[in-house]
Amino acid sequence: MAFDLDTKQFTVTILDSGESFRCHTSQTVLSAMIAMGRRGIPSGCHGGGCGVCKILIRKGTVDTLPLSRAHVTEADEQRGYSLACRTYPLSDIEVEVKGQDRHRLSRRPRYGFV
After folding, report:
1. Has residue 12 got a pLDDT over 50?
2. Which end of the chain is more exposed for a tag (fewer CB within 10 A), N or C?
3. Torsion of CA 109, 112, 113, 114, to 10 degrees
4. Which percentage of the chain shows pLDDT scores above 70?
5. Is residue 97 part of a domain?
């Protein structure tokens, strides 16, 4: 995919995993994460219908496509919740994972026997 020279890039930091990656204003947070080979935000349908990629924007400004009200209510959206597959950064942002598969994330790699 070629990007317009006028698009800007911002840093997305996933607070749960400590991962950071760059995201163009023309990319959703989820598509940029996947393109960079990161895995900090679980994903499902990639179209806004499943809610697996639900995030809370802790810092920064974003724009969003319409959000599924089954997963992000208007009140949630006012508090900063969004879906990573429907969210475009307008500044550097920091997010927390809030989707149903967030329990699979860990901040540090595990070593040794389980």
Report:
1. yes
2. C
3. -20
4. 82
5. yes
Is 56 part of a structural domain of the chain?
yes
| CATH number of the domain enclosing 61 | 3.10.20.30
Specify the pTM: 0.83
| HEC letters along 46-86 | CCCCCCCCEEEEEECCEEECCCCCCCCCHHHHHCCEEEHHH
Total domains, the chain: 1
Q: What residue numbers bound the domain in which 89 lies?
A: 46-101
Q: Residues 64, 82: contact at Cβ < 8 Å?
A: yes
66 pLDDT higher than 90: yes
Which pLDDT score, from 0 to 100, does residue 112 have? Answer: 41
| pLDDT for residue 3 is more than 60 | no
